[in-house]
Fold this sequence. Notes:
Layout: E1 5-8, E2 11-14, E3 16-21, E4 24-33, E5 36-47, E6 50-57, E7 60-67
Antiparallel strand pairs: 1-2, 3-4, 4-5, 5-6, 6-7
Amino acid sequence: xxxxxxxxxxxxxxxxxxxxxxxxxxxxxxxxxxxxxxxxxxxxxxxxxxxxxxxxxxxxxxxxxxxxxx
Length: 70
């Protein structure tokens, strides 16, 4: 399972329903948006030092990627 907290500039929230299978992961979290709280789902994978995936929300999907510094 995948547990923890997601942190961004405006705050943080708990990881919900986190799962890891091989190099792939998925989790949901609730974030404030426009005065309300919405649930987003994060799906991604890690290969070597690279992470990538999508953040899905009621407003649509946004890709993300990053590379670990050595």
